[in-house]
Amino acid sequence: MQRFLTPKTSINSIFFSIYLRFLIKLIGVVSISHPLHKTSTNLE
Questions:
Q1: Tens of pLDDT along 1-44?
Q2: Distance, CA of 22 to CA of 36 (rounded, Å)
Q3: How far lies 16's CA from each of 6, 24, 43, in Å?
């Protein structure tokens, strides 16, 4: 049972790390674009 579970958990961890990286990139883009929107509205 343990031998059967190990490949599945490793695949899950790989998908989780990819998802985490995507989430961090998304948060980074939002945090960068959000202040830009605020400054553009302040300039106008």
A1: 566 666 777 888 999 999 999 999 999 888 887 776 666 566 55
A2: 21
A3: 15, 12, 41
Q: Amino acid letter at 43? A: L
Query: Structure tokens of 3?
Result: 């031998």
DSSP-assigned letter for residue 34:
H
Q: Give me the helices (H) in the chain, please.
A: 2-43
- Per the confidence metrics, is the pTM higher than 0.85? no
Give the pLDDT of residue 42.
60
Tokens 């579970």 appear where? 5
